[in-house]
Amino acid sequence: MSEFGKLNLSEIHLDALREICNIGMGHAATALCQMIGRPILLSIPETSLVALCDVPDLMGGTEKVVVGIYLKIWGDIQGNMLLVFPRDSACALLSMLTGGPPEEELVLSEMHSSALREIGNILASSYLSALERLLGRTLIPSVPGLAFDMAGAIVDYILIQLGEEVDQTLVIKAAFSGDGGALHGNFFLLPDPRSLRIILQAAKVMADEMD
Amino acid sequence: MPDRVVRVRISEFQVAAAPAALKVFGLGSCVAVAIWDPVLKLGGLAHILLPGPAPDDDRAASGWNENKYADHALPQLLRAMVLRGGNPERMVAKIAGGANMFSTTEGLDDISAVKHGIGERNVEAVKETLARLQIPLVAEDTGGTRGRTVTFETATGRFSVSNARGGAQCI
User: Fold this and answer.
1) What's the structural domain count of chain B?
2) Considering only CB atoms, which chain B residues are within 8 Å of A106?
């Protein structure tokens, strides 16, 4: 990584990152599967190195109304995690958890919000603890924050934090789905620029071991 | 009706003349700043990410995008409008954004790397810069906890703000 803004990543690095995140997602999916009692399908994580202004488009439409659960990551590796559910999927997930249909009302009740936050907490914790074991580094998730709004408006909170230091960011996106497509969501991981080097070193060691 | 809509992304500004419209989709803690010359029907819209000040070092030379900062982007926008024949003495500004998207979260604000109220700080920096440039702020829809989409029509100066709950207003 150069001093300001620009990042240089090789295909080998990205492969190793995808593999690491795939394993993390696998653990998160298992946790989700246990909570809702239904199988969860995972797609292969996508890694993109993009300008900050292009990140909102990766969320699947800047104006699309979604539930976003945000966690800050602390420890040896710092960064941002965002779990995004389209509105319908958030409703489906809530009814699976609570056993009843959620209200049609667009505003989530306090109970629904805390249930979704708890989901975010559990998924992020299982994802991060898998990464911790793989990378041999400490990763601590913050209390989750929840927003129910336009995807672009939710993600700009993260971009503001990254924007002080970089123009570009690495976005690791993993999609998951379940219940015949009624439930789907995306897990985004945006490492802080200073932590990226640590992740890449660890990824490189892993890539060498895989060879 | 606008013949075309120009999208303004994060850390960008755009200038357009009537009948075009300028638009920012999904604004959270960022701030959209519209500047309008009513005689020329020339409009500019900036999508501000950070309050600034823009760093005082050699980053700009290495391609660092300084238009993310209020104190840098707004003078640049004004310059671009003057190049198109705009007269700063006639210009007025309208702004929207600066929300706190995760305000209901206990704890997160204290521990987040971004201090509480980045939205407010963005709004404040935009207002300070506009005052410095002597462009009167005639309307605003800022703060709160909701995301916004902004459409600015250069023909009329109409600045409409809509949110995800279906609410819309023209300021």
Assistant:
1) 1
2) 164-165
Marked catalytic residue, from B21, B22, B24, B30: B30
Q: Which of B11, B59, B149 sits opposite A52 (nearest CB)?
A: B11
Range of the domain at B32: 5-170
Q: Assign A32 to helix, strand or coil.
A: helix
B122-160 pLDDT, tens digit per residue, is 999 999 999 999 999 999 999 999 999 999 999 999 999
Whole-number Cα distances in Å, A143 to A71, A93, A140:
6, 20, 10
- Which of B8, B10, B59, B68 should we substitute to test contact with A (largest number of A Cβ atoms within 10 Å)? B10
pTM metric for this prediction: 0.89
Quick check: ipTM above 0.90? no
Whether A152 and B111 lie within 8 Å, measured CB to CB? no
- Is the Cα torsion angle A152, B36, B72, B7 positive or negative in sign? positive
For residue B165, the domain's CATH number is 3.30.1330.200
In terms of CATH architecture, what is A11-204? 3-Layer(aba) Sandwich (3.40)
